[in-house]
Design brief:
With 299 residues, the chain is of the alpha/beta class. Helix content is 35%, strand content 31%. It is built from 10 helices and 14 strands. Helix 2 crosses helix 3. The two termini are 36 Å apart.
Length: 299
């Protein structure tokens, strides 16, 4: 288990991370979210010991993170950190050796993941000759060669198409099933929503929303009603509790203040013709994020 307790980081007079605490259990995928400059990357670097914190403690399975246990950690950085003149094989051997692995083990793992990501033919190709998406695959493979106990993923799906995103997700879930603690950061809320169980949202280095995704969505009062029927948008907008009515293809999305106003909308829709759909959904994580973060940045 990763435990982060009351960590603070200043860059000069600038407070980058403000008294942040969270835990990531074994076999758990945890989301660390925020806009650019919110303190996510600084937090990752403090966890890894790449920069010093001003206050607080960080432990992995009760131990301070230092060079004695960094071989148990994998880190996929948002920025490309590959050596472009090396071949894929040379890059993997370099990273694997830094993690204390033997060359035979490195090459076995490399062959396994190259096959899994359908890029075995690139093994002896130089990194600079690969597309951005395939470079991202190699960077990810290098981060997981050592079967990390703690896996930190900073924007892992950058440059990937939907099929490759799904391939990445399958491998990440495999590590979850093996008991790894996984921290995941992305600006794509739909990705976070797919597989993060708990999360923290940072604004200016401070946690403004945290907890299980299920509870966060449950506690967020606003609901979306999806409607396919012969209805009048202007009539829907007049109903008490309705905040907005948006068109989304063949359906309307009616946003209400909370679930007690759903009946008001239903009572109107049931009188209309050709009712094909009436479904009530929780607000998306993207909506929750925009309202939570946007309002605080406007202050």
């Amino acid at each position: 288990m990763l435990k982060v307790e009351n960590i603070t980081k200043y860059y000069g007079d600038n407070l980058a991370v403000d008294n942040l605490s969270f835990e990531v259990n074994d076999g758990e995928i945890f989301g660390l979210l925020g806009v650019n400059g919110a303190g996510k990357t600084t937090t990752f670097r403090m966890i890894l010991g790449l920069i010093d914190k001003n206050n607080g403690t960080i432990t992995l399975d009760g131990k301070k993170i230092d060079y004695s246990i960094t071989d148990e950690i994998g880190f996929l950085t948002e920025e490309r950190s590959l050596l472009l003149k090396l071949t894929v094989k040379e890059q993997a051997i370099y990273y694997g050796t830094l993690k204390g692995m033997k060359e035979k083990e490195i090459l076995e793992k490399l062959d396994y993941y190259l096959d899994k990501f359908k890029i075995s033919e690139y093994k002896d190709r130089k990194i600079k000759e690969l597309s951005k998406g395939n470079q991202q695959k190699i960077q990810f493979i290098c981060a997981i060669l050592n079967d990390p106990k703690l896996l930190i993923l900073d924007e892992p799906f950058s440059g990937l198409d939907p099929l490759n995103v799904e391939d990445f997700m399958k491998v990440i879930r495999e590590f979850k099933d093996k008991g790894s603690s996984i921290i995941f950061s992305s600006h794509r809320m739909e990705h976070v929503e797919l597989f993060c169980e708990k999360l923290v949202i940072l604004v200016k280095g401070k946690s403004v929303l945290s907890g299980s995704l299920k509870e966060i969505k449950k506690n967020y009062q606003k609901k979306n009603i999806l409607i396919e029927a012969d209805v009048e948008k202007d009539e829907l907008k007049k109903i008490k509790g309705v905040e907005s009515v948006l068109e989304n293809g063949s359906e309307l999305v009616v946003k209400v203040e909370n679930d007690k106003y759903v009946k008001n909308v239903f009572d109107y829709v049931k009188k209309c013709d050709n009712v094909l759909k009436f479904a009530v959904e929780d607000a998306s994580l993207n909506e929750i994020f925009v309202e939570t973060v946007g309002g605080l940045y406007e202050e």
